[in-house]
Amino acid sequence: MPQHAPAGTAVVDASQAAVAVLLIGPAGAGKTTVARHWADQRRVPTAHISLDDVREWVRSGFANPQSGWNDNSEAQYRLARRTCGFAARNFLANGISCILDDAVFPDRPVVGLGGWKRHVGPGLLPVVILPGLEIVLERNAARSGNRRLSDEEVARIHGRMAGWYGSGLPIIDNSHYDVETTARVLDEVVARSIASPPNW
After folding, report:
1. HSE-CB of 169 using CA atoms within 13 angstroms
2. What is the CB neighbour count within 10 angstroms for residue 170?
3. Residue with more model confidence, 8 or 135
4. What digits encode the pLDDT tens for the residues 38-57?
5. Residues 154-170: what's their mean pLDDT?
6. How far apart are CA 148 and CA 145, in angstroms?
């Protein structure tokens, strides 16, 4: 016998709901590519907000973390995150979903997930995208400009991201997925997260 929702209970359709998704992962995981594709393919208005893009709005005096993480790069990161959070809240208030992407580290919860939750709101749905190290190195090698990191830095970031295992957050290993498949899996994960939000 089919199960029906109790009278007066709305069944949430993930493809139609206005949601805010935070796509987390190391450099080279494919966050930005997947986020753009996911936003492009949804049946409802959806915005993609890339923290790296917003950080690079600063043209003169840009503090490039590749030159060393310091007070200036930290300040610019925090400012970019607040700006992304404000934009996300504004989109949501107008019925537009959004997907944000950032390399949030599990060992820095206050400036990572905690900061995103403060800026976007408690309904934020974090999802980790974490392919194997070989895949991340290969994808990073195809990047250019200040988005391309050294192999050593990529390996260090990837190692820190392993801390997300056991966190309770949904993790997608897209090592053997193309962009379309990863976006489809992301859709399924978001639907489950809407139905049963993760504790974080």
Report:
1. 27
2. 19
3. 135
4. 999 998 999 999 998 998 88
5. 87
6. 6
